[in-house]
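During the second half of the funding period, the structural biology subgroup turned its attention to how the target accommodates small molecules. The most pressing case was magnesium ion, which had performed well in the primary screen but for which no bound structure existed. We therefore specified the complex as follows and requested a full 3D prediction, including the ligand pose.
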Amino acid sequence: MEIVAVINYKGGVGKTTVTANLAGELAYRGERVLLIDMDAQASLTFSFVTPDKWDDAYKASLTIKSWFDAISEGKEPAPLTDYVISPDVNRFLKNEGCIDLICSHLGLINVDLELATLLGGVNLQQAKRNYIKVHGKLREAISGLANSDDYDIVLMDCPPNFNIVTKNAIVASEKILIPAKPDYLSTLGIDYLHRSVNELVKEFNDYVDLDNGTEKIKPEILGVIFTMIQINSGQPISAQRQFISQTKRLGVPTFKSYFRENKTIFSDAPQNLKPVVLNYYSNSTHADVVSEIEAFVDEFEAVLENKGKK
Ligand SMILES: Nc1ncnc2c1ncn2[C@@H]1O[C@H](COP(=O)(O)OP(=O)(O)O)[C@@H](O)[C@H]1O
Ligand SMILES: [Mg+2]
């Protein structure tokens, strides 16, 4: 089972759009996908379920917030599978592929504060144990999923911050996917993100040394997938090409494929509760957008396979 965190410090760069479409295409190809919406904004959740349905059926006890709340209350949370829902999009999938979802909750924002109160301790030893407990819980739960063989891949859509919830996702992940816009501030952000991930990994692993039984973590960056690309004569406009080259020079791998910018096509999809890649296309632009997403998923699968061989 692959475990991938989709992350960028910046909001509005296309993380959720990339996650939803990657899930859609992988499931269409027959993969069993589990999506976990870790962002309090719940955009991924509302790309697959209506706010009414969420309010009626999921809000009270079927979100990742309920799972984290159990931890804040000092209880052992139920297995993640108890929080999984099956959105309507599955009607459009054939074969054995599926998209399951653990919804987010607007109140997830407060979970960070609650979890932070569990940090610290009477001595350094205790503080380090608590650090591992608070940051490693999701990892433990996802390892439990791996044993049950229900899913081929878990995709976690992260919020645009580096709080405890986000750190849980990174600690739990084996691979990291970074959606980004090719512009100046995003390029700076990727460098910063890369360093923060390395610091977190080092900190966690230093603490693990004290705690027998916890394995060290080694999340690998799969690459940067560029989004909102403006196409001119079949290629990204020159200003964007410049930032793509700059990102490559940061030493972070990048995907050759990209998501082009198309407000009409991308902004309607969440409301239809179906990612763009699964929609019937009405015109040639839509067809181009879909083939570009398919090309990205081809590349994504090839990169995963390559990493697996190493
Ligand atoms: N390739 C794209 N072209 C045009 N608009 C996009 C594209 N990808 C995402 N958007 C729009 O940009 C906004 C932010 O996208 P989203 O995927 O929610 O980003 P994030 O998860 O990083 O905050 C949304 O309104 C979405 O519809
Ligand atoms: Mg998002």
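Two results from this model are relevant to the next phase. The chain has a mean pLDDT of 95. Residues 284-309 form the longest helix (26 residues).
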